[in-house]
Amino acid sequence: MSLNTTPSAERTHIGIFGRRNAGKSSLINALTGQSLAIVSDVKGTTTDPVLKAMELLPLGPVVMIDTPGIDDEGNLGSMRVQKAFQILNKTDLALLVIDSLSGPSHEDAVTLAHIQKKEIPFLVVLNKSDQIKDLDHAVQKAADFLQISKEKLMTASASSGYHIQELKEAIALLAPKEDDSRHIVADLVEPLQFVILVVPIDKAAPKGRLILPQQQTIRDLLEAGAVPIVVRESELAETLPRLNQKPALVITDSQVFAEVAAIVPREIPLTSFSILFARYKGSLDLLAAGAKAIDSLEDNDTVLIAEGCTHHRQCEDIGTVKLPRWLSAHTGKNLNFEFTSGTEFPLELDKYKLIIHCGGCMLNEREMKYRLKCAEDAKIPMTNYGTAIAYMKGILPRSLEIFT
User: Fold this and answer.
1) CA 34 to CA 195: how far, in whole Å?
2) 371 φ/ψ angles, rounded to the nearest 5 degrees
3) Which residues are within 8 A (CB) of 148 and not within 5 positions of it... i.e. 6 or more apart?
4) Whole-angstrom distance, CA of residue 348 vs CA of residue 87
5) DSSP 276-327
6) What is the pLDDT of residues 237-256, one digit of tens each?
7) By CB neighbour count within 10 A (0-12 exposed, 13-18 middle, 19+ buried), where does 129 fall?
8) What's the pLDDT band for 70 if we cut at 50, 70, 90?
9) Taking the model in full, what pTM does it have?
């Protein structure tokens, strides 16, 4: 993704669901005006969820998600259906596509029940409607079968373009509105105040660029009129006395939390990118409480370390190497570790005593809340990288002071 594009986590995620050959891929192409999805008369062409970031006017930046058919068959088909339903966990708005010629099915009703259970805004789209003679009857019949009001149904045709513009406008009206009151850090500082961002440059850092949380934090500070100063931890001690005013805040990468805390005077507020993003996604209190479970770990307990993205792991990867080492050293226990990344997140969590998640910068708010709810329902404490590190280093209370 270009540095100038809206991050995936900040885009409205639109999930397209329906039976094989209902016209899901064709509808995506019609809505976007592009050949984004492969279209074929062969059932089951879409075998895995396909995500595409794009602009959908009049809504704006979105992620369109094409999913496998919900009526797929056999063992492999069942796995594909399960993947389609897992996409609901990151879906902000759902479109259930139904072939008007065959009408809604039991699978459509089950899918709609899943959508409604998760309280996801939705529209039912009767595709190929230009081929139906008595359209009013078809709409009423579908509404009765699915037990929804006719206002939740739209008629359209991906092939002819019938009602595609009206569908775009309906999507824009139904999509969750952005909360302008949410900020990463802008609400914590004043214009022209200095904010120091401590950014290590090591083998694990993407070559030639800053990682996404750092980019987003800098952008948020610039929009607030504050003055971000970016340094490595090796230059921090010399930078502080050269400033003509005391920084309003120091934000550090979690990996060098302890080193930075030792350098920054106690009267200067200090926190981390991970902690800021936990607050931004509304989960800071829960994750801070979860960090305390570290001290209750016992020998042979299993800890799940989960990441929201996939990347090439380096020899000193924070998730698979550094965190396990720090946890073992802090607790003095013989712990077991399991790791997941990307869209993978275990359905069964009972075997874990603690979940430590990354900052979740690549996950949208709905999916992050879903993972937190899974942990809460299973009564498994959950925290994130930065919060766990601050707790183990004894600096979590200081890291949270800026928010009070």
Assistant:
1) 43
2) -65, -40
3) 112, 124
4) 17
5) HHHHHTT-HHHHHHHHGGGGG--TT-EEEEE-SS--PPPTT-IIIIIHHHHH
6) 999 999 999 999 999 998 89
7) buried
8) confident
9) 0.74
